[in-house]
Design a protein that fits this description.
The complex is a heterodimer of chains A (115) and B (120). Chain A is an alpha+beta fold and 115 residues long. Chain A is built from five helices and six strands; from the N terminus they run ααβαβαββββα. In chain A, strands 1-2 form a two-stranded parallel sheet. In chain A, strand 5 and strand 6 form a beta hairpin. The longest helix of chain A has 11 residues. The N and C termini of chain A lie far apart (32 Å). Chain B is mainly α and 120 residues long. Chain B has a domain of 70 residues. In chain B, 50% of the residues lie in helices and 8% in strands. In chain B, strands 1-2 form a two-stranded antiparallel sheet. In chain B, a hairpin with a 4-residue loop joins strand 1 and strand 2. In chain B, helix 3 runs antiparallel to helix 4. Chain B starts with a helix and ends in a 5-residue tail after the last strand. Classes of the chains: A alpha+beta (115), B mainly alpha (120). Chains A and B meet through helix 1, strand 1, helix 3, strand 2 and helix 4 of A and helix 2, strand 1 and strand 3 of B. Strand 5 of chain A pairs antiparallel with strand 3 of chain B, so a sheet runs across the interface.
Chain lengths: 115, 120
Amino acid sequence: MAELQGLGAKLSEAERAGVEIVAISPDPNERSQRVADGLKLGYRFLADPDLAVARRYGLVHARGGPEGQDVPRPATVVLDKDGIVRWFSVARNYQVRPDPADVLRAVRALDGPRP
Amino acid sequence: MAVGAVAAYALLLRVPVVRNHPEAYVVAFALATALGVLAVRRARGRRWPAWLALGVAGLLLVVGAWFNFVIARVPDTPTAFRVGAPPPDFTLKDAAGRPVSPADYRGRKPVVLVFYRGYW
């Protein structure tokens, strides 16, 4: 969650940049919504309960959860306006997440300032 | 002092630069412990409480290194992301039950996808 809070702290800037931040986790919808409300984040939370999307993206950490369940590998992906991947980062250590400043830099590098 | 150290650790872990370089803080902790050993060896008088404290610090160091390098490691897997190519599309439901797909934003705005492990 730490990286979500970090990104959240920068969110007003990201919003100004006109970016949609989509957070995906196996958490049930209502719970993610509560998390979002609690942190006052403007994210779109999507539930991937059976890790179907994580699996398709190659982002499954098999038996990585505390009860030995599969969990997603933390990852951040920046897509440009045309849906093309411009930058991404996938965790090799679950404590290590991209610095929100790096994500913002990748977003800003997409095509400069927009109106 | 121990309470201060724990508080400092908790605070520092919130700084991305610190959290993102576990090897650096393990090395820093190892250096601090080694300095402590040198200091205690040179000290006069009753030294066993200091050795005890250093023993605890050494144990914490080993546990910390084990956690950072073994437990927190995420196995590398081939991912579907290639810079310059679109990722496979998907549709998932948002909190209100509405289907959302990255393709919905195509031609409208950039998207940052954040995959996270969730609250347990």
